[in-house]
Amino acid sequence: MGANGSSATDDAAPAELDVESRLTDDNHDALKLWLRMLSCTTRIEAQVRSRLRTEFGITLPRFDLMAQLDRHPEGLRMGELSQRMMVTSGNVTGIVNLLEEEGLVVREPAAGDGRAYQVRLTPNGRRAFKRMAARHEAWIVELLKGLGEHERGTLLRLLSTLKAGLSTPEQT
């Protein structure tokens, strides 16, 4: 605790509170890179969450679910949504319930399987998502404006190489 009763982290500037604050000069460059990428991702996601909530009154998980459905106009089964979003089926059910109440999605019995449901965007949901997606893209462009076109291309290529190497992780 500080002299005024606050902890040291209470007095820290926001930039000091991210995951990189635990690094030392002795840490491996790979760890420094990982934490830098995580820090950037966390900051961008926080901005997107805040802007979605402020401008559209929607959460990031609801936006993400609508994005999945936008890519599949025929709809997706609840289980497919759960897998694609990497969340539990209970989470998907809660999100679908809210979006259904707002008239943005419709849930129908899946053809050939009376136990499963197919979810798709309603016309109103598709229009709402298109507006949100356009703003989302503009926000991302704005948030990445610190990188020039060449730098973005280089970073994209480097991250693609990294991702390809992570697709087949070694067994430890």
Which descriptors would you attach to this protein?
single chain, 172 residues, mainly alpha, Arc Repressor Mutant, subunit A, 3 strands, 10% strand, disordered N terminus
Structure description:
It is a single chain. By secondary structure, this protein is mainly α. 60% of the residues lie in helices and 10% in strands. The protein has helices at residues 8-11, 29-56, 60-71, 78-85, 89-101, 123-143, 149-166, and strands at residues 76-77, 105-110, 113-121. The chain has a three-stranded antiparallel β-sheet with strand order 1-3-2. Strand 2 and strand 3 form a beta hairpin. Helix 2 crosses helix 6 and helix 3 crosses helix 6 (123-143). The protein is globular, with a radius of gyration of 21 Å.
List the SSEs and their pairings.
Elements: H1 8-11, H2 29-56, H3 60-71, E1 76-77, H4 78-85, H5 89-101, E2 105-110, E3 113-121, H6 123-143, H7 149-166
- Tally of strands: 3
Classify the fold: give the CATH topology of the largest domain: Arc Repressor Mutant, subunit A
Number of helices: 7
CATH superfamily of the largest domain: Winged helix-like DNA-binding domain superfamily/Winged helix DNA-binding domain
Name of the level-1 CATH class of the largest domain? Mainly Alpha
What's the main sheet like? 3 strands, antiparallel
List unreliable stretches of 5+ residues: 1-16
Give the helices and strands as they follow along the chain: HHHEHHEEHH
The computed structural class is mainly alpha
